[in-house]
Fold these 4 entries.
Entry 1:
Amino acid sequence: MKGWMEGFQASIDYIEQNLPEELNIEDISKKAALSPFYYQRIFGALCGMTVGEYIRARRMTMAAQELACSDNKVIDIALKYGYDSPDSFAKAFQRFHGITPAQAREPGANLRSFAPLHIRITLEGGNMLDYKIVDKAPFTVVGIKKRFSSETSYKEVPEFWDEWKSDMKGLKGMFGVCSDMDGKTFDYWIADLYLPWEDIPEGCETYQIPGGLWALFPCRGSLPDSMQKVNTQIWSEWLPSLQGYTLAGNYSLECYLTNSEDPVTYICIPLNKV
């Protein structure tokens, strides 16, 4: 656990050391020895915000300090912290601080400060998290997919499900599949198990899920609350204490077994055995 948390903290330290530079998720996630997709999922669970939101908040904090304490031109500060023009910088600055860059230079100006993150594990009593590790053969799903930004997916994926419910396209919605994750974007599928003897519904495609080891986490209770709670526990409690396995692949699954007598949703994470 100590080594994993140290790696994650090293990634945050890397962000802090390079705030004025161009930052990309591939370089950041390497510091934590994670794929860009998993890094962003874990960051969101641990920190309550996206990586991009954190970087913008820290840059706005540093920009305000520089405005208040130096005579550097606004355009130079804007360019330093990744903004192409004074106008775009001024709009972002006002959204964050509630005042303009010019007002930030006035004596007694009220500015907001977002402190650097420090990752710590605090033990407050044991929390039970059920899971099992299984070996699954490859299988194929059939469904509809849409490309999402990792920055906005938490809001947009549920909207995708709402759109699907108005026209189910012959699908039951057994799976939610994240695939082809490059750190910035990914495909999200609403899908069913593909049965070769059945026709593929109009507008749908097939996608093969590789075989291998999976950690299955049951989420019982109303959605999305039960899934969000388990998801947070996976990344903040289960992963830091995981031994003998590493995260695998650039895909993950949600499995919805709502037709059973005991409706349950599973979060499914692919693993490699060390």
Entry 2:
Amino acid sequence: MTTRAGFVALIGEPNAGKSTLTNRMVGAKVSIVTHKVQTTRARIRGVAIEGDAQIVFVDTPGLFKPRRRLDRAMVAAAWGGAADADVIVLMVEAHRGVTDGVQRILEGLEDIGKGRTVALAINKIDRVKAEALLALSKDLNERYPFAKTFMISAEKGYGIDDLREWLAGELPEGPWLYPEDQIADLPMRMIAAEITREKLTLRLHQELPYQLTVETENWEERKDGSARIDQVIYVARDGHKGIVLGHRGETIKAISTAAREEMEEFLGRKVHLFLQVKVRTGWLDEAARYSEMGLDFKDGN
């Protein structure tokens, strides 16, 4: 039997649906999905099986105009993920069309895409009429020579099977890169931190979610099969601590409950989750915090 395996990088603007597509392809939640932009910080790899092929999805941070060190490190990680991949898929939101951000990505592909198979996936097709979709596809294909164009809805599952089947056929022949039952190459400690960060992002508003990070400090396997997980939420300012805790600790309790329930579902066993909130004014400039997120501190320069 001939097996295939390789990396597929999903690139696009923030909120284009990359994390949703990764989760849909893999069939499990390996990348956090929220309505807020720039939630994917590290390059999360999800592993999908299609016939004899193993597709490793690199879900990169959204490509946007970076303003601060963390932004620059995220954008560098996104292009780095594309440069390391066998196949690149550019995701564009159907209802937003060719924005300035999409145009910048197309220009970046002139260099990164050389010698690679690059496909176009127009996402959220349920939001626009067929004529607009065809016009957008024609416009994008005139701007860049895509190997193939797919019309999909990552959220609803339209067109996903065709895309996965095509990707499987484009990967190089070779042995599988991960064990058959493995769905992500992130350590469980980082997945647990991402789950908590998603709940914080959903619950809190404005800029605060980008001024905080979550680290799993301790993971203890218990004799009864359960796990005790201790996490620290680092915030940049004193005032942020009160926002995360909420009135009489109600906000942090709700976040803890939601995160614990999702961890239990993901792990298939009982979890005892303990959260602490600490103020760390300069965490956005600490190399250790970046490596914890799978980013390169130097890329933020």
Entry 3:
Amino acid sequence: MNDKNKKVIAFDTWSMASRFRNHGTYVYAKNLLTNFREMASESSVEVRPFVSPAASNDANSFRAVEGFAPKQTALLQRDRLWRFGGACAAAFFDRADLMFCPASTVLPLKGLIPIVTTIHDVTPVTMPSFTRRITELLRFQLRNGARFSQALITVSNCSKRDIVDIYGVPESKVSVVYHGYDKATFNSSPADPQASADLLRQLKITKPYILHHGVIQPRKNLERLIQSYRLMLTRNRNLDLDLVLAGPLGWRYEGVLAAANFNGRARGRVIFSGALDDQHLAMLVKGASLVVIPSLYEGFCLPMVEAMACGTPTIAANSSCLPEISGGVLKYFDPQSVEAISHGMEDALENEDVRKQLVSKGLQRAAYFDWRRCAEESLAVLKSIGL
């Protein structure tokens, strides 16, 4: 150890590259690092996040305080080298006691330095949606992270079961630590009416609307959501809403765009907002008549928690971790069934008692999730290594 009384923890900041700002792993890493810094003077550890002025990485903005000492390395700007050995080498030569990887993007070098890795989910195995080459790379990273890390952190019991089943690691190796969310932004305080009106005008939203927010990609199941939305409007002439899909275009989104553009004689308009900053996104969530989470697979699903925290009626698929994270307090549907999604939306829009329950129970459940708690529980796992 560098100091007899302090364990030195190197922090891999690769997932905090500015190009990942709309990704969940970026949000996770940034919030953990922020809280680690605030906790540093009270902890028996020294956290050393890797930084590089030559890299476009938001960890560069973090300043040193007692127990928190950013460490410069030129290797961080070389992506491939960093992920395939450079990160471990940097931590080893800095004489850190272990390294924390907030995403399974770094190849652990067995015997060089102990590593704790967060595996958020196993979608490259359970629901691959990239090219074969990228999928194989992601599976390689997950497999090696699971096998060669000293300990693993994951974000739901659902993900833990998948990790244990797929990689055969002992349950004792995997700790479940729930995410937090930005409570200052996503909350039940009313949005500014003028700012909200300006945003709706900018996005050309002229009616009440149903909302989904998140990166547009295959496992979000948005083609079925569009089909279900149009089926609902065809069946119920009393309902007249837009469907807003908020978030950047990710990958394999062509089918979603085609479904949105082709409606034949069906009613309904699908609006793509593109990527929004958190303040505008929160306004959009707060103004929605309903938030729908039809995902086929999630590791945690931060958008669902954000919607619940805003006091917006929310319904979700009965798949993967969604009932677990929402605490079983929402209304759930079969995400494979267009009919079931459609009926779920219709019931939540027309039944006032259902809406009130979704709001009150959703707010109560969302209040549990907290980035400070996430950081404290994660730090406890890190401190336990080597004891």
Entry 4:
Amino acid sequence: MSLRFTPLHQSFVAEVSGVDLRRVFDEPTLAALRDGMDRYGVLVFRRQPLTDAEQLDFARRWDGTLHTKTGISALTASRLGNEALTDISNVDENGDPLDSADRRRIYGLANQLWHTDASFENPPGRYSLLSARVIPTVRADTEFADMRAAWEALPADEQARLLPLIAHHSIAYSREVLGFSFSSEERERLHGNPQPLVRYCEKTRRRALYLASHASHIVDMPVAEGRLLLRELMTYATAPQFCYAHAWDNEDLVIWDNRSTMHRARPFNDKQYRRELRRVTTLDIKPVPA
């Protein structure tokens, strides 16, 4: 296979061609793809007709351990029959668009907030692989923001102020901001975890802001002050110069690094148009030395 990386943005994101991920088993090709991910943070693969099993298998080859404690699993079992396969869709078990009042639809609206996947878990998410199965005839983009470029553009004194801070992440918080109600049992299962506000990647030797709508407050800082800081950073880090919007085609696969990017779904008329995507997220577990 002859890999080619075509940049799609000035600081991150590349389209990868010359590869069929269903047939990538050799370590040199996997290593080259991981190197591309380290450089670009988001990789776009066109015409990747993956089945659920093929997507799961490739994710394991790509990065090992899969995330299965998804937030929505606290509410309902997956219609796909595998908790490692997150259903990013607007349809029910019969393939019909979800009713406006369906809890699954209301819960899923929070995907339109800027976030990183599984930042509320320990270990958090590392890479996410999102596969397009049914795409509407209207635009229903996913937008990405480069948290490394946002960090590197900050003044040195601001970097020094942010570097030691810890934020608490809870997926319940990001939903409750939109008015979603949890039972006490559901909320207990979604208690969340603290995460550094700035992450460092040993391999790339680069830092990135680690923001998400899941971040409810800054630890050891007054709640109001911490939430104001988080809102200001979110506005700053999602300025147009740091962002890229992916327009989906059927059979697209997009992989991103949750440690160096944020993303959000863009709204569309989900009561009229079907959209079905499958996401697999790997956990940020250090590899065992060879």
